[in-house]
Design a protein that fits this description.
heterodimer; A: mainly alpha; globular; B: mainly alpha; rod-shaped
Chain lengths: ~230, ~50
Amino acid sequence: MGIRNKLIYLLAILGGILVIRNLNVILLHFPDEAAQGAIYRIMFFHVPCWFICFTAFFVAGVASALYLWKRKTVFDNVAVSAVEVGVVFTITGLITGMIWARIIWGIWWTWDPRLTWAFITLLVYLGYLMLRRAIDDPTERAKNSAVLCIFAFTSVLITYKAIDWWRTQHPGAVLSFRTGGGNIEPAWEMMLLWNFLAIGLIATAVLLIRTNQERVQREVDALRRRVHEL
Amino acid sequence: MDERNFTFMFYGFAAAWAVLALYVVYLGAREGKLRRQLENLKRMLEEREKT
């Protein structure tokens, strides 16, 4: 088993152990919230999912910029893999948010700025994945999708800042690094960070698997061309 | 725990992990498909280089 595979297993196992530990604390040790009851516990997955989604899209943007600069396929592999992982966590973030909203707001969805921009972010990155499928030439595909990926990150920034720039139905910032402290129970904030770490480890393992698959896909495409030439 | 809120909390957790689990299953299936394609192409290349 190579070092890469050992690292993937290590990240996944560590992440899994942390998730189980965190779930134990969230479900069995934290009391219900006075106004929200049990449903507030979704926040401990909803918020970390969005952190991971934003991080993944940031990684994709950086990898895309590096590809345009260095023209090495490894950066393109990382970019598409990070976008896929980001899309998965965007969907997870939206679904968990909708379930929370159904109870607290009485509606599944509203077109407020934060939610709308989150949905736009999902559409933009789905567009990135569709663009890649539409271009056969690997170099053109990598170049064009890298340009899109860099500009697509603006939707992430707008989604992040939407609660500061506009009046939104979405709850405002609660974490200390945004508010200076006092908006959330310290134990809850610590659990958010623990879950970010736990789910982040799993997301990193998935990213490594996907990046390796992209490398193998290139190998398959190259072999296919050689076979057809013979 | 309030029962309705608890039920929706459970749905939320289940949905989050279901989406991730589905993606992991998709990656597993893709891995198998890529491995088979690679083996077939390597075999085809060997046969064509021999002839």
